[in-house]
Design goal:
The chain is an alpha+beta fold. Among the domains are: 43-134, Immunoglobulin-like; 321-386, no CATH class. The chain has helices at 7-22, 138-152, 159-169, 183-188, 192-216, 233-245, 248-259, 270-273, 275-284, 321-330, 334-337, 353-362, 375-386, and strands at 43-50, 55-56, 59-62, 76-78, 84-90, 99-103, 109-110, 114-115, 120-124, 135-136. It has a four-stranded antiparallel sheet with strand order 4-3-6-9. A three-stranded mixed sheet has the order 5-1-10. A three-stranded antiparallel sheet has the order 2-7-8, with no helix packed on it. Helix 7 (248-259) packs across helix 9 (275-284) and helix 10 (321-330) crosses helix 13 (375-386). The chain is globular, with a radius of gyration of 30 Å.
Length: 390
């Protein structure tokens, strides 16, 4: 008798054999399951705003290797018309990441002043990324500069203390303004103190740009990527910034001087309308001649730029007892010295800013005020101590 096997039955047998083989049943062709999948890294999308005015087409990167420039391998992106860029940053790195913005001549533009004439970089310190409106600006840059300068001198300075120092030295009210505020947005909302902060930020940028140009003999200097800068310009910029850190009070005075000039009257864009006047003020106050010799390279000395005419500087504002009283109250001085002031030799500082400054430098309980007050602040407080019952 002839036995005929069904094709259907043979198909089931073949399927069973394949199934057994795949499960490791007696054969060298066993396919092992992937037991080590690539872990998923949690990331957070953060939008950052780069500003002097709002800067378009600035390169923003996470400075992973802390070399101060944007390398091609680092997380990065370019800002849009409103100075904003969104980066996907590993969530675990938000507390330790430091950002850099490279503003490049010929590529970047400032919404207030137009084309960027000289390249420069801005930084923001670690710990300031995971906030509602993170910014990168000349003010955040000086906070990082303060931290770096103190570290080089063997001192550890917190972000909060560096912020306090920069704002106070610029002659701004640190009870109303932080270096990490979006001063462009807050100025538009009507904040006078943030408008002043923005003007000081622009004077800082002009000072950095003119100093770089003077030191390198070239307006286009800062490298965009690659971990190095042509002609040592990155080193020049660091030197310039560290020098300007000691001149912050002068930056504030220059900004106030410009505010009193005719070009600023009723101006909604002082940076643009007072362009020449700002440059002249920067030059006449020597804010464009910072010692940046270590970055020149090749030992060449650039040609000395022509000296513009020096405008007459307005008289320094007189000491204000009313302003001094506000500072005294805002900083809690009454806790030790009474309100009105009368205790603990406080009245020795009447009309004597030097006495007040000396007390801050020598009395341990007052050390927290070191570097906080500008010369004008001290004069105002001294005037209040001379008339404590106003």
């Amino acid at each position: 008798m002839k036995i005929v096997k069904s094709h259907f039955t043979l198909g089931l047998i073949a399927a069973a054999v394949v199934s057994l083989s795949a499960c490791g049943g007696g054969g060298s062709s066993t396919v092992a399951a992937n037991t080590n999948p690539v872990p998923t890294i949690a990331k957070t999308s953060k939008t950052f705003t780069v500003m002097d005015g709002l800067i378009q087409n600035a390169l923003v990167c996470v400075d992973s290797n802390a070399n101060g420039v944007c390398d091609a391998t680092e997380i990065q992106g370019h800002t849009d018309l409103n100075g904003q860029v969104t980066l996907d940053i590993p969530t675990a790195d938000l507390a330790t990441a430091k950002l850099i913005a490279v503003v490049t001549a010929g590529l970047s533009t400032d919404k207030d002043t137009g084309a960027i004439p000289t390249s420069y970089t801005l930084q923001t310190p670690v710990g300031k990324l995971d906030v509602s409106d993170p910014v990168i600006s000349p003010l955040t840059n000086m906070v990082q500069t303060k931290i770096d300068a103190d570290h080089a001198a063997g001192t550890t300075t917190s972000v909060a203390d560096a912020d306090h120092y920069v704002i106070s030295q610029l002659g701004l009210n640190n009870m109303q303004v932080s270096a990490f505020d979006n001063f462009v947005a807050k100025s538009a909302e009507g904040s006078t103190e943030h408008k002043k902060a923005g003007e000081r930020a622009h004077v800082l940028v002009v000072s950095i740009q003119t100093s770089i140009t003077s030191a390198t003999g070239s307006a286009v200097t800062v490298a965009v990527t690659g971990g190095s800068a042509p002609g040592g310009s990155h080193a020049v910029e660091i030197d310039v910034e560290h020098s300007l850190l000691t001149q912050l009070s002068d930056i504030g005075k220059v900004s106030d001087n410009v505010e009193h000039l005719a070009c600023a009257t009723n101006s909604t864009n002082v940076a643009q309308d007072c362009k020449t006047e700002i440059e002249n003020e920067v030059h006449s106050n020597h804010l464009d001649s910072a010692d940046a010799g270590t970055g020149r390279g090749a030992g060449t000395t650039p040609a000395t730029p022509a000296t513009p005419a020096t405008p007459a500087a307005p008289a320094a504002p007189a000491a204000s007892a009313t302003a001094g009283k506000a500072l005294y109250v805002a900083n809690g001085c009454g806790g030790c010295h009474g309100t009105p002031p009368s205790m603990s030799k406080i009245l020795n500082g009447a009309n004597s800013p030097t006495t007040i400054s000396g007390a801050i430098g020598s009395v341990g309980a007052m050390s927290s005020f070191s570097g906080k007050f500008t010369a004008q602040n001290l004069a105002d407080i001294a005037a209040y101590l001379a008339t404590p019952k106003i």
